[in-house]
Structure formats: C-alpha cells, structure tokens
UniProtKB/TrEMBL annotation:
Protein name: Acetate kinase
Keywords noted in UniProt: ATP-binding, Cytoplasm, Kinase, Magnesium, Metal-binding, Nucleotide-binding, Transferase
Presence of the UniProt keyword Nucleotide-binding in the record: yes
GO terms under biological process: acetate metabolic process; acetyl-CoA biosynthetic process
Subunit structure: Homodimer.
Native source organism of the sequence: Methylomarinum roseum
Pathway annotation: Metabolic intermediate biosynthesis; acetyl-CoA biosynthesis; acetyl-CoA from acetate: step 1/2
Gene: ackA
Length: 410
C-alpha cells in the first residue's frame, strides 16, 4: 500500500513515499529554491535494512508543476512507483484548517475552496499548500488525495481554552481564537508514548513538547488536546528559533509610536528576527550552545530564557491536567538536547518529575524513558515522524466509508 506525502512550501516541495504494509519509508526528498537558478533536488532511497542512498543535484525547476514532475519522474526511474495506480493515496500537509476541519478529509472542490478561505489566517503557508494540491490533482487526477491539517488535533480545545478575552464579535467576524499548530507531531508522539507505556491513549494525560526551530507545548487529557501554546498564529507561546513567543500585546503599539516602525516591520521582526536569533544572533541551537560554552553572555541568556519558558508551560499544563502520566520531548531540539531536557525538568521532583542523568545523556532509540525509576511521571524522548503520521491518517481517511468523509462536522 504505497502512499505519497507532500508538503508544498512557497519555494520548496518536501516529499516521502511509504509502503504502509510494513510502515517502510521508500524514498524521501526535497526540491528547494523553486524558481531560482540554484534549484536543488535532494533525495534518499531507503532500503529494508534502514540504509539509504543520498543524492544531491542541481536542477532547473521553474515552478511547482515542474517540481512535481521531477518527483514523479524520479519515483518512476528508480522503480519506486511504476505507474500511478500503485499509489493508494496522496497525503498533503495543510497548515491551517480553521474551524472547518477537525480531521483529515478527501480533497474535492469544496475542500479546496475552504482551504482558500483560511488564507488570511495562514498567508505564508496555505497558498503554497494549495498550489501543491492543485498541481498534484492536475497531474494525478485518478489518485485519491487527502488534506491533513496541522490545526486539526487541537480542535478538541474547550471554549475556555481557545477563546481570547477580546470583544466577542472578533471571533464571529474575524475568526479570532486559539487554533494551535504542530498537531500532527503532537498526535503522533502521543500515540507512540501510549504504545511505549503499554497504555490506551484515551486513558493518558500527557504534556508534549515539540521543540524545533518552531516550538509548541500541548496538554493532552485522555488522548485529546485541551490546551496548546501556539494561538491564532504560530507566533504565540514558547520562545523559538526566530519567533518571539509570548510578549506584552502592547509592544507593537509602543514600537509604532516610539520607534516609528511599521506594522510590517514589526511583524517581520517578531517572526523572523526574534527568539534565539533576536537574543544572541543565532537560531540554530547547536550554534547557541557553542557560543555559550565559549562564554558569550547573550548565548547563555538565550539558553536560560528558552528553558525557562518551557518550564513555565510545564507547570501551567500540570496544573490544568491535575495528573500527568508522562512528559514527551520531541522535535530536533527536544530529541537531541540533553542539557535542555535536564534544565526543563530540574527541581520538579515535588511534582513527581525527575531525570536520570545517565539515561538523559544516552538516547539510543526512537523512544526512550529518561526519568528516574522511582518517579511517577514518565519523561520520554520520542522521535517524531510527521510524514508517517500524515500517511497513516491519509490511508485511514480513504479507507473509511464514504459517509464518514464529512469535512464540516461542527
């Protein structure tokens, strides 16, 4: 059962081909700098032993149509897909589904129209996601195509968690509310945590921490997201690589008056020049650590701020849940930064949270427990796989009876 996953960006297409009969990744790749002279196609061919053949080549890609053609040509030439009929379905990552979509959905004209309606909520992402969808349908109209939304997992937030304390008609007229993001990753690692613990997900309370260049925390009660740190946009919440996270809402107005900065300048600064980068000039956590180890105070401050913000959310979500079975670290930083994990969990033994230093320093598989053995709260490090989760959700969606494909359940 071969399933292709596509993540179309404004100038890139990321893809993965799975054989879900064995959850095997067959091919993964990235076409980047679409429309530029320096376009590149990087891809890996994976085998059953877990090894891969890496390839990196310059290629002229004028637009997304050519990019998709290059992907399909590669898959055919490398005999990953001999003909379109071998594809069970194609899963598309879509960043924002608003309140329309609580689950994956088979794409039709109405779905495309509703995704387009969400563009004001995700102007940098949804147009690119749509472009990939429309071009793929044009080239492979006979293959079922499924939209999987980053926001869908968080549509279980209760009203007291998703509403902002702003004029009520802002929600009605402008759709202002907390949506949350990284839902595919939070959902995937929550299921992996349940499997590792030998428990049913709907009986677990978890705090999941997706920490990469973008970062978010989620409180999961009996398998359902009930609060999450990102809000109307991915800007709210934890400190991130280039995003500021939580700030005083009056800050932009102050900068407009006192600094004569425009709304566009402020928005760009808060999204692209803040977070770790704003504090110490680096948004790669490895570089921040190197600078901190060399005594650079700005980098040391950035690390302290980053860990402190996470710890605040840990405490807040512990209070919201009342009882926590496990804390999950995931994402590029969450999976690889032992120092950060230790700092986030330090001095929390009164809450049943304590890390075993040796276990924390030696993570040797995709799911590992690093908590001290006598503590009631498991602390897990789980490698996320958003592409596999999209593939699984897409297959489940296509396999369901037709009447279950209602994409407007609210």
């Amino acid at each position: 059962m071969k399933t292709l996953v596509l993540n179309s960006g404004s100038s890139s297409i990321k893809y993965s081909l799975f054989d879900l009969n064995g959850h095997n990744l067959l091919v993964s790749g990235l076409i980047e700098k679409i429309g530029e002279e320096s376009s590149r196609h990087r891809f890996r061919l994976h085998n059953d032993a877990g090894n891969s053949d890496n390839n990196d080549a310059g290629i002229t890609i004028a637009d997304h149509r050519q990019g998709l053609q290059a992907i399909f040509t590669l898959l055919s030439e490398r005999q990953a897909i001999a003909r379109a009929e071998e594809l069970f379905c194609i899963g598309h990552r879509v960043v924002h589904g608003g309140e329309h979509f609580r689950q994956p959905v088979i794409i039709d004209a109405e779905v495309i129209a509703q995704i387009r309606e969400m563009i004001p909520l995700a102007p940098l992402h949804n147009p690119a996601n749509l472009l990939g969808i429309e071009q793929t349908i044009e080239q492979l109209p006979q293959v079922p195509q499924v939209a999987v939304f980053d926001t869908a997992f968080h549509q279980t937030l209760p009203p007291h968690a998703f509403h902002y304390a702003v004029p009520a008609d802002w929600h009605k007229h402008y759709r202002v509310r907390r949506y949350g993001f990284h839902g595919t990753s939070h959902h995937y690692v929550a299921k992996q945590a349940a499997a590792y613990l030998g428990r049913e997900l709907n009986k677990l309370n978890l705090i999941t921490l997706h920490l990469g260049n973008g970062a978010s925390a989620t409180a999961i009660e009996q398998g359902r997201s009930i609060d999450t740190s990102m809000g109307l946009t991915p800007l709210e919440g934890l400190m991130m690589g280039t995003r500021c996270g939580d700030i005083d809402p009056a800050l932009p107005f102050y900068l407009q008056r006192s600094g004569q900065l425009s709304a566009v300048e402020i928005e760009t600064a808060l999204n692209k020049h803040s977070g770790l980068k704003g504090v110490c000039g680096e948004n790669d956590m490895r570089s921040v650590h190197r600078k901190a180890e060399n005594g650079e105070q700005a980098a040391q401050l950035a690390l302290q701020m980053y860990a402190y913000r996470i710890k605040k959310y840990l405490g807040a979500y512990y209070a919201v849940l009342g009882h926590v079975d496990a804390i999950v670290f995931t994402g590029g930083i969450g999976e690889n930064d032992a120092w950060l994990r230790e700092q986030c969990c330090a001095n929390l033994s009164a809450l049943g949270i304590d890390i075993d230093t040796d276990k924390n320093a030696h993570i040797d598989n995709d799911c590992a427990a690093i908590n001290a053995g006598d503590q009631p709260v498991a602390v897990l490090v789980i490698k996320t796989d958003e592409e596999l989760e999209i593939a699984l959700q897409a297959v489940e969606c296509v396999s369901q009876p037709t009447e279950s494909h209602d994409h407007n359940p609210a």
